[in-house]
Amino acid sequence: MIELQNIKKTFGENEVLKGISSTFKPGINNLIIGGSGSGKTTLLKCIVGLHEPTEGDVLFNGENFTDMTFEQRVPIRTHIGMLFQNSALFDSMTVEQNIMFPLNLFTNQSKAEKRDRANFCLERVNLAGKNKLFPSELSGGMKKRVGIARAISMQPKYLFVDEPNSGLDPVTSILIDDLISELTVEYNMTTVVVTHDMNSVMGIGDHIVFLHQGKKWWEGSNKEIAHTDNKELNDFVFASRFMRAAKAKL
Amino acid sequence: MIQSLGRYILLLRLSFRKPEKFQVYWAEVMREMVSAGIGSLGIIMIISVFIGAAVTIQTAFQLVSPLIPKSVVGGIARDSTILEFSPTISALVLAGRIGSSMASQIGTMRVTEQIDALEIMGVNAPGYLISPKVISGVTMFPLLVIVSVLLGFTGGYIACLTSSEVTTYDFISGLSDGFNPIIITTCLVKSVVFGFIITSICSYQGFYVSGGALEVGQAATRGVVFSCVMILMFDLIISRLFL
Q1: Which of residues 69-128 of B touch A (CB under 8 A)?
Q2: Complex ipTM tops 0.90
């Protein structure tokens, strides 16, 4: 479980996050949604420690991550997997080496064990046999799946996903969403997905936090989102004609 | 300026923290050594031969007095090559070749979030990315400079063979006349310092890139320019201290 306690983040004069509190539970898909510039990615970076919050605390299973030093954070970080918007695979390494990289650094497994684990992760994301390919030889969707395989290689307790559907076609987007959702349940992970893709919101949004102008504007599930009278949320979710038509049928 | 210097020193301190796993870092050091050392051998060989030959011809051209023995050409070419041309010119060339590559490699990793990915995993990113490069710089540069010195002499010898100003006998006897070992020490100290300057400054420039492809290119250029300026400054400082 991850708890956010009054997270504020300021860059110079610009206050990007204005006191956000929420709780992300394990085994469900927690989504952070909002328009461009609403602070979604900044919040995600504050949670994982890539940005230090100006104020507030992030608690991982009750442990205050914000107050920890780099060394103190390492044991928690080994339980964190993250899929980046552009996958962030290491260009100089093959798919297999990418997946084995955290295992090489943080486990004492034999080479055969690490290879088995890499093969298992690749099979889990339907990329069996692609071990020797380099990231430059993969399509956007394949890169995302390798990113997920690398993220789950250490069997993490926490999975963070930044814009998993950006640049993907609708079919691949749904495949990625389903994969994230399945893995969340399978490993009972605390999964936090930053997105502005409405298919993801409606498809896997078990718990949704809507950010607007750096504040938590609304919180609920995808079942509740269709019936809310929150104007800003409605303007955001039902911006497209397709979504408005879908809402009209409900 | 002072802020940048502080950030540079802090980054170097982070770079030399205890590695998560020595084996993984050692493999990186070996990879960087091959890339910096073997990868630069070709260009160093070519420039060294040409510089050695040019220095010999130009020295011979200036020493036209019948009162000066021709073997002096060998002595001057030796000292110029060991003290200045091999360490300094090689370092300037390597700043362009290795330095820009390091800055752009690390910079690209920054803008494509690969460094963020390392940090999320709990890896000390400066240690994993920068320390192997600095270690490869301070170990491989002296070896490259030794090769450069030897090939510079070969270039001078070839120049003597193909011209009539100085005989090869005079050139070789000049190489050994009045030899002072301090010039070798100075040369090696310079090469270690230059290796450190190029790898650390270029890595620093790459590590703090923000933006995209344009900024990565600018960081690589800045890395090379700052390295070249610092190389020439430390060339003077080391020469003043040792000679």
Answers
A1: 108-109, 112-114, 116-117, 119-124
A2: no
